[in-house]
Specification:
250 residues, alpha/beta, seven-stranded mixed β-sheet, two-stranded antiparallel sheet, 6 helices, 26% helix
């Protein structure tokens, strides 16, 4: 579930498919858009082909971005007036936000016409967990603290109506309580340690365990095999859900 908004641009066929689908879903005929959670401005640069005015917003100011209109702010307290942008574009963001309901209220507030959302679909955040070497607590993969399906997204935007939905990708990754317990005991050696996000508990940089005893290696290997067997018989499901919400006109 790694973000494609890194400095390398496109990375996989799935990410290319996601980008193509998100651009296909963009509402046409509007002037201004807010790229909410823009990171390095990757999507902001693509949105200029569809909107005359593009504003990029992120909680951190990117070191390598040269985007023209950049706002550093928290998604839960947007520094804009009501109905400020025709369209809000928000992808690979809400899964990271603890106060997700507050963030979605803010997104709906500043949207004049439409909102485009892209998030992982029914992600099992037990898969790919990491263990912090400083506080020894576990973290969700990629810093994803939320998981979504269609109903979850509808409930997050109660003042808007869903007008389009798209599912992208396919995954058979599965786990179970025993495999999770064994992987946690092993220190989650195959977690998403190359993620940009730090430990959600203490803020330290995440890194894989350096050395492990035979018993810990055995625990991790057992968990890996359990997951592999379960995934082989699992029904595939989409990896990402994209939804377009329209503001109810008064």
């Amino acid at each position: 579930m790694q973000s494609l908004l890194g400095f390398d641009g496109y990375q996989t066929a799935l990410e290319r498919a996601r980008t193509k689908d998100l651009l296909r879903l963009l509402p046409r005929g509007y002037t201004s858009v807010l790229d909410a959670g823009a990171r390095d401005g990757y999507y902001s640069r693509l949105l200029v082909d569809y909107f005359r005015s593009v504003t990029a917003l992120d909680i951190n100011f990117p070191l390598k971005s040269r985007w023209r209109v950049w706002v550093q702010a928290d998604l839960t307290t947007l520094p804009f007036s009501d109905n400020c942008f025709d369209v809000i574009f928000c992808t690979e963001v809400l899964e990271h936000v603890s106060a997700v309901q507050k963030a979605c209220r803010e997104i709906a507030r500043v949207a004049k016409h439409a909102v485009v959302i892209g998030v992982p679909y029914r992600q099992d955040t037990r898969i790919g967990k990491t263990t912090c070497n400083h506080c020894w607590k576990t973290n969700p993969p990629w810093g994803h603290v939320n998981s979504f399906d269609e109903q979850d997204l509808r409930e997050l935007f109660p003042t808007m109506r869903a007008v389009e939905l798209s599912l992208v990708g396919s995954s058979q990754e599965r786990t179970n309580a025993l495999a999770v317990a064994l992987m946690d005991a092993a220190g989650n050696p195959w977690g998403t340690y190359d993620q940009l996000e730090q430990c959600v508990h203490c803020g330290s940089k995440l890194s894989p365990p350096v050395s492990r005893s035979f018993m810990l290696r055995l625990s991790g290997a057992s968990a890996f095999m359990l997951n592999k067997v379960q995934s082989r018989f699992a029904t595939p499901r989409a990896g990402w859900i994209h939804m377009v919400f329209q503001k109810n006109e008064s």
